[in-house]
Amino acid sequence: MATGEPDFDIFENSEDYFQNEALIDAIPHPYNANFCYRTENPDFKHNLDLMNLCKNFVVFLEKLQAAYANDTTKYSKYIEYLNFWLTYKSTATGKSDDYITKFYEFIQNNYKAFPPDGELKRKIYHIKGKSFNNMSIL
């Protein structure tokens, strides 16, 4: 799985991202998130919290993509923010780093928005250790 250096400028437009995050529950379950609830997935089929987090990630990503599709300046960092958001939410579950890394791999391998050579594949990864701690402080 690809990893990169965290971008601390992602918080510049966080108020806008918070407003969009608040709308997640108001959006109906999208078809694109059905993969999150696959029962044949042995690692996550008994973890409803992670299944719901997966669905919320899909909803949040698609909401931000639609809202900022034509704006390449102000909101160009929404993917990086979403990566931090997913790491924050998955870390809050109390699962191990290895388990969370598997969760990221599950999303990358099953969500159609992740083509093998696409931007999301490079920018959505499990932020670990000191990098995540430094970002959390901000």
Fold and architecture overview:
The protein is mostly helical and 138 residues long. The protein has one domain. Helix content is 51%, strand content 0%. The protein has 6 helices and no strands. α2 runs antiparallel to α3. The protein starts with 13 loop residues before the first helix and ends with a helix. 22% of the residues are buried. Mean pLDDT is 76; it is low at 133-138. This is PIR Superfamily Protein. It comes from Plasmodium ovale curtisi.
- C-alpha termini separation: 25 Å
Largest sheet: none
Shape: globular
Which range best describes the helical content: under 10%, 10-25%, 25-40%, 40-55%, 55-70% or over 70%? 40-55%
Cα gyration radius (Å): 14 Å
Given helix and strand content, the structural type is mainly alpha
What's the overall average pLDDT, rounded? 76
Residue runs with pLDDT of under 50 for 5 or more positions: 133-138
Order of helix and strand elements from N to C terminus: HHHHHH
How many β strands by DSSP?
0
Number of helices: 6
In total, the number of domains comes to: 1
Tell me the β content.
under 5%
